[in-house]
């Protein structure tokens, strides 16, 4: 197993200095490693052996499991044991191979099955940012008791591509351009060159911190990963999605992916669903009163499952 640990890395601790009191302080998680397809996948776990559910937190392209670990205190406790993986290529889960976007859903789906077998408890998926669609795909194919997301970004939608990319022109041209560059799949680009990392939050200090984090927003991604995301389609069309109830907790002051970008896909979902707009919260929802609204909405949702 790798010897690296978040105990020996300091960058993530600076997030806690900018997070509100509800998320600050040590996240209280235990570190684990899970061997998957030749990779050592890092997991943060907030144990709750008597909780009814296991919640799997799925980060996006500007984060990692440790960035989301503080949210485990809002989601977990008596309701759920929480597991936050570093998906391949991010956090402490490193690989030299060019990633395929589909690997993220496959990784989470296999982790869901491992957690089911480990404890026999039903799974709740929580996806943040790009992780929302990853969690959606996993719920559709591997099953879940519930799905919580902060946004739902279908890259087939030209509006989604324009707002997700660093510039609207880049988002418009990306699919065709990346197909022509398939021969250069192994080329790595800083993720902040291609997505609007400056809108990760409404706090410029937090944006700078994310953009300089080598485990998250300061990371590099392969052209293969970008191409396979930009040309991807959901595992199940929303009109056929009946796997589980869905809670969309969309930040109301999201300067990166406004709620109207997620709404068209969300409204097509056939399963029972609820939309809660988090007042004053940015893409990474750390502001009040949105953060409190998030905690209460998630609590109600899980209690009702």
TrEMBL record:
Keywords carried by this UniProt record: Hydrolase
Species lineage: Bacteria, Bacillati, Actinomycetota, Actinomycetes, Pseudonocardiales
Gene Ontology molecular function, alphabetical: hydrolase activity
Record-annotated AB hydrolase-1 domain positions: 56-289
Xref: InterPro entries: AB_hydrolase_1, AB_hydrolase_fold
Protein name listed in UniProt: Lysophospholipase, alpha-beta hydrolase superfamily
Pfam families: Abhydrolase_6 (PF12697)
